[in-house]
């Protein structure tokens, strides 16, 4: 290879290395400039948790500079039980923005008080006076006899069932409760005055719900005086519409 080409190649590599070194040094250098001292910290994405609570968890010191490494502050906010994800970005010259993604409540779990729970089974400490939630209630069997809160692993199957039922909006909108049964099945309370008991196997199959509702509609159309009490969808070979105790 000709010497001039080698020299040009070496110069280009050196130039790139110099730029990388400058970029790495810039935040440290700018962190000492008063212009970039943090004057405001703003929270975005917090609906269920007050902004001040997120700021308390972040614990960004008054002496902070927008070019400081935010990793420790992000980790502190990420530990909040309602926070799924967090990113702290700079809004130059002197503002930090704490962007959070909250966990989504899927149902209430009766502990015995009603507490919101997400898809992973995490109980979310949400102030009911701050945010109004209209969610089905999950009631689980007490298999421990203790007073401690159920673990996420314990709550996840029935909560996932509620989430699957959202795939049928017409059913989910009238779903008031889902309770575990001793045989491993679940009973969904659908509608009101009185509720129709819909008996299901886990995992819930939304297509099975659709099939059951079609049969229920047919039954009601053929006998307008009927008052169904339960709809049994536990068995693959049939659907039972009951007019008495299930």
From TrEMBL:
It is found in: Membrane. Keywords: Cell cycle, Cell division, Cell membrane, Membrane, Transmembrane, Transmembrane helix. The keyword Cell division applies. Its main location: membrane. InterPro entries: FtsQ, POTRA, POTRA_FtsQ_type. Residues 36-103 form the POTRA domain. It holds the Pfam family POTRA_1. PANTHER family: CELL DIVISION PROTEIN FTSQ. This is FtsQ-type POTRA domain-containing protein. It comes from Gaopeijia maritima.
């Amino acid at each position: 290879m000709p010497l001039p080409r080698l020299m040009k190649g070496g110069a280009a590599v050196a130039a790139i290395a110099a730029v990388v070194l400058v970029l790495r040094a810039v935040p440290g250098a700018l962190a000492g400039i008063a212009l970039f001292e943090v004057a405001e910290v703003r929270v975005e994405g917090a609906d269920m948790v007050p902004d001040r609570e997120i700021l308390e968890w972040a614990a960004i010191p008054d002496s902070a500079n927008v070019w400081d490494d935010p990793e420790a502050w992000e980790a502190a906010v990420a530990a909040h039980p309602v926070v799924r994800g967090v990113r702290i970005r700079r809004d130059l010259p002197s503002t930090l923005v704490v962007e959070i993604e909250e966990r989504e409540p899927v149902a209430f779990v009766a502990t015995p008080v009603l507490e919101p729970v997400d898809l992973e089974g995490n109980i979310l400490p949400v102030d009911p006076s701050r945010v109004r939630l209209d969610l089905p209630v999950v009631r689980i069997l007490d298999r421990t006899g203790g007073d401690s809160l159920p673990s996420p692993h314990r709550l996840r199957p029935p909560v996932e069932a509620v989430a699957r039922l959202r795939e049928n909006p017409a059913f989910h909108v009238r779903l008031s409760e889902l309770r575990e049964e001793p045989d491993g099945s679940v009973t969904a309370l659908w509608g009101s005055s009185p509720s129709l008991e819909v008996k299901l196997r886990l995992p819930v199959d939304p297509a099975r719900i659709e099939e059951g509702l079609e049969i229920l509609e047919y039954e009601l159309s053929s006998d307008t005086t009927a008052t169904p009490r339960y709809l049994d969808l536990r068995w693959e070979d049939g659907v039972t519409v009951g007019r008495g105790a299930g």
